[in-house]
Please model this.
Amino acid sequence: MRNSSNTSTGNPNLNLLPHSMNEYPKGAYECFPVFTPTIGTIKSGFHNLSLEIIDKMKNGLRVLMVEGYHGVDWDYFYNELNKSLIKNGTSAEWISLNNCLAAEEIIYQRIESFLGGDDRIFGSRFPCGPEVFFDYKKLADMRIEASVRRGSKVGTLTIFYGLGAGLLELWDELFYIDIPKDMIQNKFRQGKIRNIAITKEVDFEEFYKRAYFVEWPALNRLKQRLLPSIDCFIDGNLLEQLSFMSGSDLRAALHEISESPFRVRPWFFPGPWGGKFMQGHMALDQDEPNYAWSFELIVPENGICFEKDGNRLECTFDTLMFQENERTLGKEEAKHFKYEWPIRFDYLDTIDGGNLSIQVHPRQNYILKEFGETYTQDETYYITVAKPDAKVYIGLTEDCDPEDFRNVLEESMRNGKEVDIDKYVNWEPSKPHDLFLIPNGTVHCSGKGNLVLEISATPYIFTFKIYDYLRRDLEGILRPINVERGFDNIRFERRKNWIKENLIAKPVTITEGSNWKEESLYNKPYSFYNINRVEFKSEYTFNTNGKSYTINLVEGDRINIESQNGRVANLSFLETMIIPAATGNVKLINQSNRSCKIVKVFVKDGIGKSLPLNDPIK
Model:
């Protein structure tokens, strides 16, 4: 099969870029993918929401609970819905759950042991629900009040609203306002929200640490518990453009998507080493200095967008997993990963940018003991697009002295002295379709000139930077360096010769047919997932057989994907898609005249049975 790396600068779907190229034309990449359910309705506007409530009052609604995730603008929601109810001839008594929050110092005492002390970045996973944020007596009294209000005369309406309303349990109707985690982070950066029940100002790192390790796990447990009982689901992204659907319609849409190939909504962020390729190819905001990351499939923070009759509604990916984890993951994988999607895809763009930080990820026992994660951050770098002379740093040089390396890194931290990284860290040339394996404990980073598709286990924040070229973040603050943690985890035996033999993929053809072949790129004991690559000219067919897949079109223009339930989706160059386990037969059809290549990632057979979940090398 021919190599279709092109040299024409007018083609947005290049894999190998001319060295002089510095403008990147827009491709067909869709930043806002949607899924259209076959049944159900998405409605919009506070006027229509108020009419829904008034109609429900005719059937005995007296107590309405409105629960929601952290980041919801409750004041705006109250003001707009209250105005609409009054305009439509109905009044309600509103009771805020904010009055039941515990004192700030009491909450801190309850969660302090999970916040990592003085560590700027890391804590450990909180194992309980959002009750921790509340005054237990006030919450109990509020529950009694809800019971009393349910006995009120017909035609009266009490709305208990705010984070924690679902804890009261006694409702006639339950509404839920969802908001994805990238929007929560945006709201914090805009100064619109703080951590739950916090009055003091903190920087983003402290905000995110508390959210990631305590708040989000606690709120997810409540969302999971409430999902079967939700009567109305509301998209909290932009309340100014309110959209909602019935709980039953949402649950039906989640069931349908669990047997259909779909994309999540990616999100993008600039960084101090970021490049310019994604900014052009994906038509991102030109006012930003660069874009470093595309969070293609980091499902703890991605959303799923439904669209029907011109209305769009988004829910978080974990909403799908709470209801349909077995159909999405497959029964065997669901036994081990529960409600977590185990595979992560993201882009790292260093084209016309700089090197990433020199870094290492924690060994399995370390991440379990220190952070409460159940599996570690084993990664790979798949090079999708690159310029000539690009490189990837991976492993140590043959003559690297660990003690000397640590000394120069610590000296750099103290005195701001630059380090000759090439003396200590091995690098290898990189070109499109190379795959570099980066199991935990391996020192690594992408050099400039690459668009890396990072294929990894889902844990995504556990990066110990040991050198960052003395760079500051976009807020002007020196980025945190973790030499001590890094050196606790580096596997010093992984040096140049070992790397070349073991951590640079050597494709092996495992099956082929007319105009297609499938290669194994990664099938080693370092992680629980395999990576295959399929190249085809016209079409390629397979059956999921109860196993989930993540795919990405790493070469080619566009393919159509036909699934057993009759749906047809499309995938353009560089887009990522989930193929749920319940999909069944899948046909990929090339829509252009040149060959296509997809990477196909899946959990190994036998994980948790004949094979261990994690790296057997401790």
Remarks:
- The first strand starts at residue 43 and ends at 44.
- Residues 204-226 form the longest helix (23 residues).
- Residues 43-257 form a domain with the Rossmann fold fold (CATH 3.40.50.300).
- Residues 1-8 have pLDDT under 50 and may be disordered.
